[in-house]
Amino acid sequence: MEVLNDKYYIDTWGCQMNEEDSEKISGLLKGIGYTKTTVREEADIIIFNTCCVRENAEQKVYGHLGSLKRLKKSNPNLIIIVCGCMTQQKGMPKKIIDKFPYVDIIVGSFNSYKLPEYIDRVKKDGKSIIEIWDKEEGIVEGLPIDRKSDMKAFVTIMYGCNNFCSYCIVPYVRGRERSRKPEDIINEIKSLVSKGYKEITLLGQNVNSYGVGLETKVTFGDLLRKVNTIEGLERIRFMTSHPKDVSDDLIKAMAECEKVCEHGHFALQSGSTRILDKMNRKYTREDYITLAKKLRKAIPDVAISTDIIIGFPGETEEDFLETLSIVKEVEFDSAFTFIYSKREGTPAAKFEEQVPDEVKHDRFNRLVEAVNEIVSRKNKEYDGKVVEVLVEGTSKNDETRLTGRTKNNRLVNFTGNPDSIGKIVNVKITKAQSFSLNGEMI
Ligand code: SAH
Ligand code: SF4
Ligand code: F3S
């Protein structure tokens, strides 16, 4: 099937895994002749790749779907597609189609690779398609991927999650853990490197459980060591890893492998052991502090980033103060802070003692203030230092400046030669700001 001059538009919400899924969907659509547009009004296909981790992620999608009514009226041939995690929730496809009857295709996370077939069907008979699977028929390898960047790439190493943290909907919408074969991962990375990619991020909801279910046992540490030997690759990152599963061997692998960036994202969620227990996180406040100490000892200059939820059901002021104090003790290099959002179908949605909104907002503000104070103080320590930066392009706010990240994931904006885009260069920090560093290439 060859389509000419037809355009698709895609919006992506949610985590890096969704970003990578969108790159795969883009690859599929380009494969059947579509070209990408960033202007909704000129698209023949509009795709919303959705997230449902918090309620506000869903609200955004509803808002955007509502605004498509007008476009569908002016262009009845427009094909509207909803995919991603939101569609995997029980009753959601019906809810979407009832509210927005002009949606043409609702496809789940496990069968989005079938989109070209569904698009073809809709074009032929004009009937809308709702097709959601509860699991996939096995990991589909070899799909075309249209990547956003030509120097950094996400490489999913495992799908799904078995942890069932009591607040979280991800295991219900992404299924159980499945690992890709190491040889498929290595071959993908080698092919990326041959195209000039410098940095890869290994993705999974909990990369530490990589290898479970594979015929030959390979741990995540083993995988890091293998990837580290790939010639031409400069940087390896990974996201995300559950603190309960960080083995000493993983820390050792991080320290040993020179390409593995000095950065780990370990979601804390709460500093109170009592709340961590209710969250089903399977580690204590002390375990987390020990982990952070081990990391800082084994890997000089390591950055530790995290996710924190405030307002989990039953969280008292005392529990919250424990979160504040662990933030100060661990001195996170960055932190994503979230207000607890009740997700139907998760155990925590039924917990009594839901925290009132005004208490949540007050705690959220106090937490953000504490985090910002630490992040900004730690950034200021970079004043005058020389750092290695992978140059990603020109700076968002100032086209005459370049931008990139250090190995430990700090954002640097600097003056330098535009020919260095795609390369790793040394930058002297001239002014450290609260959330980024300013400098000049040397
Ligand atoms: N697998 C990753 C997390 C993926 S979800 C990990 O465990 O590290 C990203 C973050 O969203 C979580 O770490 C958590 O902080 C937040 N989150 C998940 N469910 C939430 C909810 N119901 N309300 C608020 N934040 C939530
Ligand atoms: Fe959600 Fe917990 Fe799985 Fe992360 S580890 S995706 S927070 S259930
Ligand atoms: Fe959202 Fe799905 Fe990721 S719910 S956070 S897009 S796994």
Short description:
The chain is α/β, with parallel strands linked by helices and about 450 residues long. The chain has helices at about 15-30, 55-65, 70-75, 90-100, 115-125, 170-175, 180-195, 220-230, 250-255, 275-280, 285-300, 315-330, 355-380; strands at about 5-10, 35, 45-50, 80-85, 105, 130, 150-155, 160, 180, 200-205, 235-240, 265, 305-310, 335-340, 385-395, 400-405, 410-415, 425-430, 435-440. It folds into three domains: about 5-130, Methylthiotransferase, N-terminal domain (Rossmann fold), CATH 3.40.50.12160; about 150-370, tm_1862 like domain (pyruvate-formate lyase- activating enzyme, Alpha-Beta Horseshoe); about 385-440, Nucleic acid-binding proteins (OB fold (Dihydrolipoamide Acetyltransferase, E2P), Beta Barrel), CATH 2.40.50.
CATH architecture of the largest domain: Alpha-Beta Horseshoe
Unreliably modeled segments: none
Large-scale geometry: globular
Counted by DSSP, the helix tally is: 13
Helix content: 25-40%
CATH classification, class level of the largest domain: Alpha Beta
CATH H-level superfamily title of the largest domain: tm_1862 like domain
* Number of structural domains: 3
User: Any idea what the radius of gyration is?
Assistant: 23 Å
- Strands of the biggest beta sheet: in what spatial order? 2-1-3-4-5-6
Structural class: alpha/beta
**CA distance, first residue to last residue:** 52 Å
Question: What percent of residues are in strands?
Answer: 15-25%
How many DSSP-defined strands?
Answer: 19
Subcellular location: Cytoplasm
Domain MTTase N-terminal: 6-124
Family: Belongs to the methylthiotransferase family. MiaB subfamily.
Keywords: 4Fe-4S, Cytoplasm, Iron, Iron-sulfur, Metal-binding, S-adenosyl-L-methionine, Transferase, tRNA processing
